[in-house]
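Q&A log
Question type: sequence-to-structure
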Amino acid sequence: MIKVENLSRSYGSVKALDSVSFTASVGQITAFLGPNGAGKTTAFKILSGYLAQDSGSVFIGGMDASLHPLQCRAMTGYLPENNPLYEDMEVCEFLVWGGAARGLCGQALASALDRVVQTCGLAPAAGKPIGALSKGFRQRVGIANALIHSPKILLLDEPSSGLDPNQAAELRGLIRNLSHETAVLLSTHILSEAQALCDKVVLINRGVIAVQGTPQELARAKAPVLIAVFEQEAPASVQEAIAGLEGVSAVERDREAEDIVLRIYCVQGADLRGEVFALAARSGWPLLELKRERDWLEAMFRELTA
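Response status: OK
Response body:
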């Protein structure tokens, strides 16, 4: 549903985007990740029609956004990072205003209002001033406003920023439900959220795509890291012995942990949990825990954007 080809944009001598290409489909949540200043917000502004690119193409629903800007904007909903809201307006009043700005009126507007209030769980806050709402409900209002015209593309720029864990979990559930009928492009700095929620990851750094693919593809591409925890009674030589296993590239010890906690870096494609467990059993080392590191996306992020 979204197809971006060789997209470039500069601000003076600074190249914010440099030949960026990716796709995002309906029924899919795509994480658009990168450090501050990587070009994420610039890309979102171009996709929403707010900003023009210097070169390259954006296709929304098969239509070139440069040639059919109004039709493409009609298919796109956008929640900016700062979520601009009129705080003195009540929730439904604001959403009616947003729908009218999108060309809705009469029964179509009334139906759209009922739909987004129900979809976004806004019934308890429908008659309240936006300024009196919690951050979680304010984000829901912003998403409802982005959905009022039934877009097929939903751009969410840092939607869970500033939310507490319960609010963030509720918002993730909402986004997951929205993705069934919408192509969701999500920018976030919470990498564990992206890893758990998204069907595709696009990582951008300094305006260039560093890597993209499904979480499964990227996890397989990254050399695995094992976490092994031994009781304090295990000999100090355990680190050196594991480092000697075939397929181990390095072993680091967490010196601040009470037990012996080792991060075992394996070569590409090697899963050495069986070998580490067998070595511990043969040597009589008290092994408390052995697992693959789950936060592979954070490690990949650091590696590619450092």
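Response note: The first helix runs from residue 40 to 48.
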